[in-house]
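User:
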Amino acid sequence: MAQSIAPLARAAPLAYDARAVTDDRTRPQVEIQIDSIAAGGEGVGRDDDGRVTFVSHAAPGDRVRADVVREHRRYARAELTEVTQPSAVRVEPPCPLFANATCGGCQLQHLDAGAQAEAKAAIVAGALRRHVAQGMELRPIQTPVSPYRWRRRARFHWFRPRGAKGAIIGFFAPRTHRVTDVERCPQIEDSLEQALAVLRTDLAPALGRRGEILAVSGHRGDVHLSIHGNADAGVVANLVGRGPITGVRLGKQRIGEQGVELEPGALGQADDFAQASRDGNVALVRAVTGAASPVSGSRVLELYAGTGNFTRALASAGAEVVAVERARPPELIPPGVDWRRLPAERALADLVGTGHAFDLAVLDPPRTGAREVVPALLELAPARILYVSCDPATLARDLDALAEGGYEPTWARPMDLMPQTAHVEIVAEARRLGAELSPRG
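Assistant: Predicted structure:
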């Protein structure tokens, strides 16, 4: 039975940023079979000419009609208008903003949980195919996170139309800077949704033209905010104590608590990086420390240490840790940890120059990867490297460089820590060829 999705392709976001551009030209239409999911979450098929076509909101196994919105010689992008033959893995999305294509926070609500995991595992396998062909073990994907209400961290955007009584607070529409008014979100924890309600009623009238609000929820349900953009300082100060909000930062002004306890003993602020999912972070730390174990007495170098997410676990297991992070150190640094507040490449140069040696290096770089530190890391030559990545493509690139420098990529484990989105986390190991691993490694 054909399923009409015509409103989905043309639905207008609930609020417009003045920078948005509208194109009313007649669009060509294609009918194609969807074969797979691309890294960004779009369905992938081929048109009648064999050209690869990416279709938003399409599921593997769907037969669809779609409007072509962008054409290139080798590929095209299209917006779904009708599912003529739905796939067995297609489900009804619970969020109307996703169904109407007005919110870009999710990409995969239309796929069942098994199909999402399968798609993410396939994306990782495709990125690492060269190393898998050379003997790297690709382990089964882990799915430790509930499908919804898993997000403890959020980035809300606001836009205030001229003459409006208040700003519109929400998320960007897909592939635009148009702000969609979001009243509820099935991704975020209850405490964040309660904080969002306070922002919409109390803060919206006091906001300037545009900006963003970072929010993080602690394990007790308290919320810390960081506001980037023009806002009435008096109104901001009065947010503390409203609902779950215990602390707010506005520029250099700090009101209330300076952060929240993300997990017992781990303090964080809204501006700090933290894994978006609480259960996902527990699983990720367990995966890294399990792969590193046993580390008691080992010398461990941790690059891109963030707020000490892995540092605490490695130090608790008895490792001697040198942790490197260019941002401010966490409030609580475990005893015995050598914390170096430097860019990773500078810290590595110092370590190489002073003759330090390590049994293990743990990397958790940003999405852009660790290209800039690989040469010095090769010179430092730890026996093993554990690489935590949120981007399969940059992980593959950096594993190529490590392999060229004498390391063997041995295994990789994909982890679905952000259901309903196209994001996938990966833990991978590489071992230095010829290295004599101690019983600890």
